[in-house]
Batch of 4 targets.
Target 1
Amino acid sequence: MSGIEFNRRLSGIPIYPAASTYEHSGDLVKLSSNETPWGPQRQVIAAIQDQLETLNRYPDPDKSVMRRAIADRTGVPPARVAVGNGSCEILMAAGEALLEPGAELVHAWPSFSMYPHLAAQSGATAVRVPLDAHGRHDLDEMARQVTVATRLVVICNPNNPTATALPVEAIDAFVAGLPRRVAVILDEAYVEFNMLQDPDDSLDLLPRHPNLVLLRTFSKVYGLCGLRAGYALCSEQFRLAVDRVRQPFSVSTLAQAAAAEAIRHQDEVERRVEMTAIERLHLEMELEERGLDTTDSQANFAWVSLGERDEAAVVKGLAERGVIVRSGAALGQEGAMRVTYGARRENDRFLAALDEVL
């Protein structure tokens, strides 16, 4: 008896390397998914609670309140704000809307693990450009790889998993040198943590580059991973295209309410960024004392080189001690690990476990 016949492209779609923490029990320190250690603030929780009795109704398909709140914060008109079930949904919809067999996608590697899905699902060709020696995007080489077949270029800034960032001026010059028919997605999931720029600096690029999309999320600094909400600042043409290829009602009522409230509290964002920066310095100094090199992190996580050490043994040893981090091999580069900056108690427990493992 033959089995179900699936799309031939299915076998080429990689499985997302999710953190393996959900089957564990006990007192875990989860430093594997770049989540913030602080939950939603009380005003956001109140906004969620206010919507609980409306859940017999579909969410607003236009996400009008959420889009207006984002527009008020960024100065980008609501018609140029796309909202998604996490920024990842917008990214996947962009692949659906832009790519097809014969088209090309250019992205750096290692970078966000979802980028390979875009080409694999659409049948397009992925052109991977290695990072430079410092773990940063090699924009010159990426520009050289753009051809007449290129439809989409993705830049992750700060880059996941290497935590490095490029100045806005370099990205401005890069986009200016590309044909305007090529869409450029600047994935800024960690932009709030980037000390090289103010989060608003990249907004100035939008009027100069109509083919540029800024992709942002509520999952990181806002602490809303569990609700899944993200957005893109883009042309109206791009918003209409990604809306056309995805299901209606993809952003839940609770996610819309939470995001619309969270983005109004930039004082809380600044407080969380400051606390993360303190833990970044603490952890980087401690790792340096142990002879472990890190990249110049501009995110809420460290990319730690393990040198000649057995990466799998280190990650396994930490997990056995209740500390979960991400292995470099799962993220595209062996011999490293990605460690989220947690609260001080979590970071010190990681360091204590690391001492035992090493």
Target 2
Amino acid sequence: MKVLVTGVAGQLGHDVMNELAKRGYEGIGSDLAPAYSGIADGTAVTAMPYVQLDITDREKVEEVFADQKPDAVVHCAAWTAVDLAEDVEKQETVRLVNVVGTQNIALACKKPDCKLVYLSTDYVFDGQGTKPWEPDCKDYRPLSVYGKTKLEGEFAVADNLEKYFIVRIAWVFGVNGKNFIKTMLQLGKTHDTIRVVNDQIGTLTYTFDLARLLVDMIETDKYGYYHATNEGGYVSWYEITKEIFRQAVELGHGEYAEERVRVIPVTTQEYGVSKAKRPFNSRLDKSKLGQNGFMPLPDWKDALHRYLRQIEF
């Protein structure tokens, strides 16, 4: 199986390429940069097949598909800077990447009857209530430009293809890029008090674990909408931060001990700062994975433990 992966310079695309290599599949990475060779993180594919690709350029997308002839595409490329997307001068670009780019990929998949995995988000919902969102729920009410454009991307996939997996994820972290965990570790070194919101509830998604699931999916024809985050129950960003520091101390980093750095829970309103409205309820119902024979992602605390052992901090 030959698989084209978009956005390989990001956290997820990087790990998908590694997972494909582990299984002996031919992965073709793509991103905006002229070249990309992975990073030295202990698991990276240091020399990966790569093509430069601007997904907003339809002719270029068609050219790459005609040349590479993939059997499946894992579409990780996206505009994910949620707050920056709210800036008026950025919104056209956000839509080009998340909507037009995704439509270009979907239409290119249509001609050779190629499978497509599209990564979406909990931000397509309004985040109200406490009930976990089900993957086939159509009660869409995105609150932000990011959420709206990712939802339009979903429509671009579902309206043009039959062989697709729309996989919504949330609170992503991985080795190759910036994320909440790295931010908290850095703040813990430089601050003795950290304020973290405790009224946004969801679960983390470790890209290393997610990559395994996505490759599992393209080995099947069990198409449709799915939710995929790590298991272990629903928690707040405050609870996650406490666990980050607890595990860091266990790994010998005493600078994160409670007597050294204090973590204070605050509401989203008290925290302020954010330009984009964030969903309070990011609980995603993942039961459809098991129902269709897919292995759920491991407990988020276990994922965090493996991640902290891998990165330098």
Target 3
Amino acid sequence: MTDITPDIPAELVNQRIGRLQEVMQAERIDAFLITQNVDLYYFSGSMQNGYLFIPSTGDATFYVRRSVSRARLETAVQVAELGAFRQFGETLTQQYAYLFVKGTELRIAADLDVLPAQLYLKLSELLGTSGRCELIDGSAHIRKIRMIKAPWEVSRIEAAAEVVAQALSEALNVLREGISELEWMARVEYELRIRGHIGLMRMRGFNQEITTGMVISGAAAAVPTYFDGPAGGLGLGASSPQSVSRSIIKRNEPILIDIGCCVDGYVIDQTRTAVIGGLSETLQHAYDVSESVIASAEKLMVPGTLCSKLYEDALERCTAAKLSEHFMGFGEDQAKFLGHGIGLEIDEWPVLAKGFQMPLESGMVIAVEPKFTFPGQGVVGIENSYLITEHGARALTRSKAELIVLP
């Protein structure tokens, strides 16, 4: 295993832990217990099975069940064997004796938004044996810290964007009338994988899953599903009720190409609409409005603008274009947002939605995706990912932002 080297620079890991410790001190949190794979990777640089314990002051320890040897190669954080889980509380008491002082009440935060209830109860029990401990939800603190991307993170997202641009350009050479969604998506995935896509697109939301993306055409694209987004797709059955199906791609119908890529854990998210032949007047109008909405969002995406403002602006434009009932879905299946943060997960903060009163900040990376759904006809739209800078939004997506018209 001598060829294993850390993905995330040690200096960046230490900066992240330092930022979390500053939050803990301000919020009177004594320690943080990181449990989820993605959060472990973010704060340690390793995704091995275990728990990362970060005190409000002092050094963090990554308690690893498996693989301890690999974790030591991947992270600069102190690594220790987890040992018997039933003794985890005692282990913490011994190593962090200055925290677990008899009679002291401790507030230990954890990523409870993703922690299974059974494990939460067990951890509460184990920590309770070590003193008067309260296990509280610290997930919002994690999500706020992760919103702001360091230059190294942006470089990974840009690398993923370049992979998507190259893969899409290559796969478009074989997109033709008569090919199935499934067959063409397999070609897209092949082109992505050989360029470094890890094959996963991670989501934080409970019971939310996503494949490499969605290639959905015609009426199949407008079939609603459980996925919290503007387009679902027919999928391959009730066990996989989203994205590609075995539907045949036909002339003069919209083909929604919503694909991503993950490089070193970081994702890019983009959508392009294609058509073999031409779109109907109704669908062409809706596509033109999607470009108008995203162009307006680009101008509004400056530090200080409230996230809700971008969503409100999009709604106003859709109302003026008489497309409100088709925006981001149709009827009761409409999604109530315009965009979302991306990074290690596809559904990060912030969210461009009503009530999300958080102001934009430099370092945020946001996917903006105005789309329109027409039952029986299909879905059209566009999606770009942007870095918020002090000067405004900088597009990270590389594919040309226009309707793709094939002969």
Target 4
Amino acid sequence: MSFKRKLFLLVFAIILNFPAFSQNVSLKETSNGVDFVIGNQRVLTYQTATADVPEGIKAAFKKSGFIHPLTSPSGQVLTRIQPPDHYHHYGIWGPWTRATINGREVDFWNLGDGKGRVDFSHIISKKQAGGAAELNVRQNHLDLKAPEAERLAISEDLRIKVKPADKGRYMVDYTTTIFTSLEKGILLDDYRYGGGIGFRATEMWDPSNSSVLTSEGKNRVEADGTNAKWIIVKGKTADKSGQSGILLMSHNTNKSHPEPLRVWPEDSNGGKENVFIEFCPIRHESWEILPNKRYSLKYRMIVFDGELSAGEAEAYWRAFVK
């Protein structure tokens, strides 16, 4: 059987199997945020409350509006927030870094500079149907040092949808739509960080016990700055298989697709606790956001324990864009 035939059958099987699970996804609101629960297990939380910072750390690093924790199907926590090397890292999130507003630089990513921040605003809608659960929220990108006063620079509608997948895995759709009402718009400047979707991994992972593989066959050493349709990040956990991970996929309608990656080199932060990856659509090219026009980016994650092969990743991506 040819490779193309095998791939077609694998894609077809994945599409058929997505809805074929008896466990439904439900939503539960808490004082911290909204939990997505499969069966009796919380698999991820979207945090609506402002996360406090450790004692002695600048209050500017507090924020809301991010995913943490995200766990593997067996309950292994795969995300991390406020690591001591980068207190502005928040699990799974996607603020823009170098933005130009009326000739001024505004940074929504590096919270310690106090120039900008992204906050949860309100829940737009919640839905549970067909075994899946969906949350739609508004996030506000704030220009904290605007000449007149603090102001709203970018509004973001974030859609998070969770659904069981095949082989005991689960799927997370992460769709972000941004727009501005500023008369002159905003320029999202080209830079190696910003926007898209970023993932700061568990403190358990380092170069000795984790790995990266992209759709173009690039590993941890080679991947930074390259373009990809998908990227597998996996590492050692307490799961019975010994490892867990996430497949992150970029939709083919996204800006700059195949999308540029930011992948921390193996020697980042002394080579310890340093797994960070991001789809970064403005890495090589600036993006002009015109007033009152909506721009969307679509991502999908497959969260797993054990192994997930390159062939499976390609099939999941084809099912995603189909």
